[in-house]
Design brief:
The complex is a heterodimer of chains A (111) and B (115). By secondary structure, chain A is mainly β. Chain A has strands spanning 4-5, 11-14, 19-25, 32-38, 45-51, 54-58, 61-66, 71-76, 85-92, 100-101, 105-110. Chain B has no helices and 11 strands. Chain B has strands spanning 4-7, 10-13, 19-25, 32-38, 45-51, 57-58, 67-73, 76-81, 90-97, 105-106, 110-114. In chain B, the strands form 2 sheets. In chain B, strands 2, 4, 5, 6, 9, 10 and 11 form a 7-stranded mixed β-sheet that branches. Chain B has a 4-stranded antiparallel β-sheet with strand order 1-3-8-7, with no helix packed on it. In chain B, strand 7 (67-73) and strand 8 (76-81) form a beta hairpin. The N and C termini of chain B lie far apart (37 Å). Classes of the chains: A mainly beta (111), B mainly beta (115). The A-B interface holds A 6, 8, 32, 36, 41-46, 49, 51, 88, 95-96, 98-99, 101-104, 106 and B 4, 6, 32, 34, 41-44, 46, 49, 91, 93, 95, 100-109, 111.
Amino acid sequence: QKEVEQDPGPLSVPEGAIVSLNCTYSNSAFQYFMWYRQYSRKGPELLMYTYSSGNKEDGRFTAQVDKSSKYISLFIRDSQPSDSATYLCAMRRGAGNKLTFGGGTRVLVKP
Amino acid sequence: GAVVSQHPSRVICKSGTSVKIECRSLDFQATTMFWYRQFPKQSLMLMATSNEGSKATYEQGVEKDKFLINHASLTLSTLTVTSAHPEDSSFYICSARQGRQETQYFGPGTRLLVL
């Protein structure tokens, strides 16, 4: 079993819809949680960063962490075709530790 | 700020040759740099972690004699794929972190094709 599980998709939504992404993990020691966006043949770009449980909002993006369920989510409101990309969750135990990535979910936002 | 560059962006080489990929942090000092490889439609797999002035720490299953990593300065790390074979063809991505900050900044990646 992988440490971090993520549905590969593709997740296809119409423009303007809410995109809902999630990851589950097995290591309860993870404390730092990140979401990255990766366009085809490009490096990942950090979207959201959260520490421990709770919610964080930044523009159209909302990240949620539920450590009791070992479950994290990313919501994208008012989705745009430019949001079409692969979204990777990542997490680590403590400051300075290496990141463990999920497999990524491919998202397609259709105009 | 927090820009990481990689060079070259694409490289094609013959089997048996060596290829060097550079990773630079342009506007901050990267005390730690990470090298990943990514196969099509798969996630990033950490290959090694390098701290400036120290030997790199390789992940299990990564051959340190094949993938040579040098982190000689706070803004530059290099990955050399020695005696490349077609199975080494992949997307190689570096990332950099300043001190023990939480955030890693990724480079744009280098696509390697070994014929």
